[in-house]
Specification:
The protein has three domains: 3-242, 4-Layer Sandwich (Glutamine Phosphoribosylpyrophosphate, subunit 1, domain 1); 250-425, Rossmann fold, CATH 3.40.50; 449-590, 3-Layer(aba) Sandwich (Rossmann fold), CATH 3.40.50.10490. α7 (258-265) runs parallel beside α13 and α9 (300-317) runs antiparallel to α16 (476-490). The model has no long low-confidence stretch (mean pLDDT 94). It contains 18 helices and 25 strands. The protein is α/β, with parallel strands linked by helices and 608 residues long. Helices cover 35% and strands 23% of the residues. Bound molecules: 5-amino-5-deoxy-1-O-phosphono-D-mannitol. The site of 5-amino-5-deoxy-1-O-phosphono-D-mannitol (M6R) has 16 residues, from α9 and α16.
Amino acid sequence: MCGIVGAVSARNIVPVLLEGLTQLEYRGYDSAGMAVIDGGLKRLRSAGRVSALAALAGENNLNGNIGIAHTRWATHGAPSERNAHPHVSGGIAVVHNGIIENHQAIRTRLISRGYEFTSDTDSEVIAHLIHARLEHGDDLVGAVRATVSELEGAYAIAVLRDSDPHRMVVARMGVPLLLGVGAGENFAASDASALLQVTRNMIYLQDGDVAEITVRDLHISDAHGKPVERAVHVSEMSADAVGLGPYQHFMQKEIFEQPGAVANTLEMVVNAQSLSPELFGVGASAVLSKVDSVLILACGTSYHAGVVARYWIEAIAGIPCNVEIASEYRYRDPVPNPRALVVTISQSGETADTLAALELAKSLGHEFRLAICNVAESALVRASDLRFLTRAGPEIGVASTKAFTTQLTALVLLTLVLAKQRGRISTDRERTLLEAMRHLPAALSHVLLVEPLVKKWAGRFAKSEHALFLGRGIHYPIAMEGALKLKEISYVHAEAYPAGELKHGPLALVDRDMPVVAIAPGDALIEKLKSNMQEVRARGGELYVLADQNAHIEPSEGMHVIELPDHAGILSPILHTIPLQLLAYHAALVRGNDVDKPRNLAKSVTVE
Ligand code: M6R
């Protein structure tokens, strides 16, 4: 879960590497480093952000026509300069994203051969292995290929050799790596956003590929060492999409992009009178009509989207739906139902646990697999037969926002398609629901207007060490999402409970120091929720209620109420998410936290 960039050019590539790393900081930001060849190998590393590395590069007047760079999210070894990449061995420098699972055995072997280790990382073995192969007489490409054949785990690497100053070699397995094709210069990076500054022409490497990159040429060979041509894709990602524009933070930008992101995700149904299963890929109609249940696998916020979907799928489509945290499912011995539709949900499509859960499902004989994902070229999409691409655009803030609401949008569509195929909704009902979906972007824009009111609450939450989030029914997972947002960026300990569960334990926590958020839609459970809210008030707990107009909840002492402007029926969970995102954002700002890059986290969790 790190970002790598490499460049070969006739010009000084240091600014390109630094800009690339800045774009990739969402992947990890606890230390950074780069190596260039300029009359010899020069390496600079620093703990902290890319900006610290940029300052160091300036002070050292770093220059070069060929270089590799890395921004790190620590897995093996603390975030420190000595553990920052590139790692070197003799004249070899290597940057690595991924995890080498057999690094300990390799390390022991290399130490017995006289290699000295200067870091605590798993990655350093790669540099020494390549060095050993070169000593053995291999050329750089041969040494890289021989090295990766010994590695177990996942990697994207870029390698330089000081005595071969015109060539960079890269390889990938299990984590993303692409090449950027420029005019008289070539590049490599973990994702396209790092290279938009120099080119839109991208080649997505496949697992097992090794590529040799010079100013003029790109030579790619596959896992068997056979030369291959990989298609050049013209990236449609706009530089604006990865820039801040008028916003202060990516999270803020992404919260406010939600009406547009949802509208884009709905583009294919905008003019439709009815829904087609083929929205989920060619052949979806046949597959979806065969399935008798749904199994959703995902992590974090994407998991919460899955939990919301369970309520929709069971209530509207009338088929059983299970939702599992991917990191748990992958190590269980689940009893597979081959007629279940396995739905993986992921913003990045690179989350290691979700990919492994999908692999397990496959190995257990699950044939029907659908990915709901925001990244078209991701491993998850490639590994799934059916797919629905959410069109949120690049999500850069570590806290997932627009990915969540677009995932929910996709999951409503899936519910309706399943329901329709099973004769569970009439044509009229389908039309009404489609109409409500078309109104969703406007409804989201209205809800965003509550920001000033939510901002007033944020100070209270920023001062608190704990918070409770309550919801009932389909709004319970929304409470879970609200609590996750608050903890991950404000570091306030937050827990979500189904409000009916309060009296079974968590009520003991409630006193005047515990702010309690209640999600109060005007649905069938509202009177039950009101009783639960009274239980909180009776213990001196202060309530912060996000209510629909028809919930009829009046503010009073200890009871703060924000009324949401639109009532969206089954889409209500989507609208209720927005104030919770805003609450977390503003609480984190009051606390002075780095909202886009919260401590200890990274955007894409491509390692276990
Ligand atoms: O890319 P994915 O949707 O698979 O990521 C899953 C989680 O890592 C992610 O949702 C994480 O929980 C977010 N930081 C939450 O805001």
